[in-house]
Inverse folding.
């Protein structure tokens, strides 16, 4: 009997690990073009290579809504599922990406800025799609989502405004943008992609209060533990467009890592942030296999506080600008796959002013 109980416990534990390690990935693109800025572009040829890889390796490309609703309802995510997203509604998504997506029959999402679309709607050579074009795509099943009315960073508060007044202004603009999307496309998902990927804890609380699922630009897979105020997406444009790098991202698993209290903040002045402590559920990886890298600093020394917590004391000051920590560890139950978590920081200059966009 004891042997049977131990066996049942081991099986249930293994099933729990397998269930919890089911993960999905969201890919983020902007331009699909050979003639637009490299940092926000992927060539049509390489974009087709991405989609062919997804097909050949038996990934399941699903509408973004399928993943988000599964998280909301805490229903199992289909493992190795992928959602494709585009920010800014550039015209080349229609002219270059759509024919390739249609060839594979893959669903996708486009995040739009209604104020920008309105200003360009009647221009013959506009770099953005028109409302008529977006409505046609929406009627074909493409998800049209919110990227802010004017692509304003949520964290760069206008001089003279308090954060409370700033968020009140942004609430009005966000809801105005959502209403315009619904009027022009018939859709209202209340999905919001942070412009420039910039946010802080107050903005996360603001998104939740306004009943929006918010998407960021830091890397990482998603699962049922994903915070719906900062859903990660893997950038897949240059210089991250090579299959050699994309392969590991597509096969990644979500880390159940949490930041408690002020550790969740993202904005610091230069030389202000010195360390960070993560709360984590261990179980399907070896502690010795955990590695964390910080952009501009390289690999960091990890100190385990106990089985549920580890800390990093930064080897150097975090550089001014956008900074990310990427933590990965090989899965025990799924050989060849890695848990992946990313934490973004936005480091201001010494005087508290912002770096250039």
């Amino acid at each position: 009997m004891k042997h049977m109980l131990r066996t049942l416990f081991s099986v249930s534990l293994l099933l729990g690990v397998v269930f919890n390690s089911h993960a999905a990935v969201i890919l983020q693109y902007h331009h699909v073009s050979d003639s637009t800025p490299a940092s926000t572009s992927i060539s049509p040829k390489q974009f087709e290579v991405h989609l062919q890889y997804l097909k050949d390796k038996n990934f399941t490309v699903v509408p973004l809504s399928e993943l988000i609703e599964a998280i909301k309802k805490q229903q199992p995510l289909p493992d190795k599922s992928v959602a494709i997203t585009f920010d800014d509604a550039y015209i080349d998504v229609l002219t270059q990406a759509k024919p390739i997506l249609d060839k594979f029959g893959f669903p996708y999402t486009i995040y739009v800025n209604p104020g920008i679309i309105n200003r360009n709607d009647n221009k013959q050579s506009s770099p953005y799609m028109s409302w008529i074009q977006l409505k046609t795509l929406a009627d074909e099943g493409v998800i049209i989502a919110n990227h802010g009315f004017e692509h304003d960073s949520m964290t760069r508060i206008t001089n003279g405004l308090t954060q409370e007044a700033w968020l009140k202004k942004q609430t009005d603009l966000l809801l105005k943008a959502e209403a315009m999307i619904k009027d022009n496309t018939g859709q209202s998902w209340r999905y919001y992609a942070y412009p420039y990927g910039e946010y802080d804890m107050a903005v996360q609380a603001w998104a939740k209060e306004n009943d929006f699922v918010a998407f960021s630009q830091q890397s990482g897979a998603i699962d049922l533990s994903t915070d719906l105020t900062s859903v990660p997406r893997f950038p897949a444009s240059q210089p991250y467009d090579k299959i050699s790098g994309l392969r590991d991202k597509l096969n990644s698993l979500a880390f159940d890592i949490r930041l408690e209290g002020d550790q969740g903040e993202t904005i610091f002045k230069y030389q202000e942030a010195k360390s960070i402590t993560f709360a984590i559920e261990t179980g399907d990886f070896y502690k010795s296999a955990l590695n964390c890298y910080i952009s501009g600093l390289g690999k960091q020394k990890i100190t385990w506080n106990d089985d549920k917590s580890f800390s990093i004391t930064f080897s150097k000051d975090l550089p001014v600008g956008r900074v990310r920590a990427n933590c990965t560890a090989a899965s025990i139950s799924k050989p060849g796959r890695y848990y992946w978590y990313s934490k973004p920081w936005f480091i201001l200059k010494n005087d508290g002013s912002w770096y250039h966009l």
Notes: The two ends are 65 Å apart (CA to CA).
